[in-house]
Structure formats: structure tokens, C-alpha cells
Design a protein that fits this description.
It is a single chain. With 218 residues, the protein is of the alpha/beta class. The chain contains eight helices and eight strands; from the N terminus they run βαβαβαβαβααβββαα. The protein starts with 8 loop residues before the first strand and ends with a helix.
Length: 218
């Protein structure tokens, strides 16, 4: 790992009154065993709690939104990033182990043609509430994506790729899959690593919708 040149990563996290969930999110980032800089950008939507103070304690850069629109927050974040690799994360997300980001970046580095990367499943925890456990077991946070066969993650019981898309390569660590405008899954949220140069080619202003950007690229 030391012999490889690892790229810096910019993390965009839109927030509003996230004092309860943001510390765990940022701690999971700080605990990553990643050998390059992780730039953290918090886009605050006029929080009335201690969200901003928490972000600063973790050394994050804080920018302000004020529109109460998370997609505008993502666009503001993108305009301030300084690195090619951009990681879109939500305040209620956690990276479940210290090698998580490393494995994500490794998949992107090994496949320069890749638009983005994300985890293939959610981590399941019996201590989570019923809504979270539902999402973790079925690989969705919106039931409609499940019934339309557009979910982008495995159910907890699945191990082989049976979702739409053309399999290009399968390794021990990841699947490389090609999509078109007819079979694009809901890839792009809940921890999505992508390339700034590609996002800038899409209609990302004034609102950055991950699905729209991916469809623009297709």
C-alpha cells in the first residue's frame, strides 16, 4: 500500500440539525486507514443546534446553504472541492470498517473508465431501528426501487450479481458493471465515490441530483 500513490479525496456532507448523527459519521471518516488526505466539506443548511460546532471540532470545512434543499447543498460542496475524487455522503451514514474507503478508491484506481463506486450492500445491525434494518436487509431505502427492480444494492442474502446492467468484470472485492439509459439503477447516494471532472460535465447547478448526473453521463 505504501508504494502506491493514493489520491486525495473530497467528502461532501450536506447537513441540517445533525448534532446527534454527525459525530458518528465524522468519526467513521476519521478512523479510515487511508494513506492520503481526506478533505471534509460540511454544507450546513442554517442548523439551529450544535451541528456547525461539531463539524469544526472534527476539522471539517463549513460552507452554508440556507435553501433547505439537500441537492443545492451538494452543488455548493462540489464548487468548493479541490480534489478529483469526490465522495457524496449523508450525515446518517457510517463507514463500517477502517478499510472501507481504501477499497472503494482501489476499485476506481484499477478501472480508470469507472464513473463511480459504492458499497454493494448495507451493513446490517440488529441494534438499529426497524426502518434501518428493513433497508439493510432489502438493499433499499425506498420500496419503489425494489419493486421497479432499480435497487442498486444486494439484499443481505444475495452474493451474485442478478441486478440489471452488463457485467464487465468480477473480482474478489468488486463488480464492474456497465449501465445504459434503460437499465440504470439508483446508484449515487448513501456513500458514492465519483470523479469531479465527470460531474462538471453534467447539469449539476444549481442542484446536484446524483441520478440525473449519472443519466447525463450515459
Amino acid at each position: 500500500m505504501k508504494s502506491q500513490k493514493w489520491p486525495k479525496v473530497s467528502v461532501i456532507i450536506p447537513v441540517y440539525n445533525e448534532e446527534e448523527r454527525l459525530p458518528d459519521c465524522l468519526l467513521s471518516l476519521k478512523n479510515q486507514d487511508y494513506p492520503a488526505e481526506i478533505e471534509i466539506l460540511i454544507i450546513d443548511d442554517n442548523s439551529t443546534d450544535t451541528t456547525v460546532e461539531i463539524a469544526k471540532k472534527f476539522g471539517a470545512q463549513v460552507f452554508f446553504n440556507g435553501s433547505h434543499n439537500i441537492e443545492k447543498g451538494k452543488a455548493i460542496g462540489l464548487s468548493h472541492t479541490k480534489n478529483e475524487l469526490v465522495f457524496l455522503l449523508d450525515a446518517d451514514n457510517r463507514l463500517p470498517h477502517e478499510k472501507w474507503l481504501l477499497k472503494l478508491v482501489k476499485a476506481m484506481q484499477e478501472n480508470p473508465q469507472a464513473v463511480g463506486a459504492e458499497a454493494i450492500r448495507f451493513h446490517y445491525d440488529k441494534k438499529h431501528n426497524s426502518a434501518d434494518r428493513y433497508s439493510e436487509l432489502f438493499g433499499v431505502n425506498d420500496p419503489m426501487a425494489f419493486y421497479l427492480n432499480r435497487r442498486d444494492r444486494f439484499m443481505a442474502t444475495e452474493k451474485k450479481w442478478t441486478l440489471p446492467g452488463k457485467m464487465i468484470k468480477e473480482t474478489e472485492d468488486y463488480f464492474l458493471v456497465e449501465f445504459n439509459q434503460d437499465n440504470l439503477l439508483t446508484v449515487g447516494s448513501q456513500g458514492f465515490l465519483t470523479r469531479k471532472s465527470l460531474l462538471l460535465q453534467t447539469q449539476w447547478q444549481p442542484y446536484l441530483f446524483h441520478m440525473d448526473s449519472n443519466m447525463d453521463l450515459i
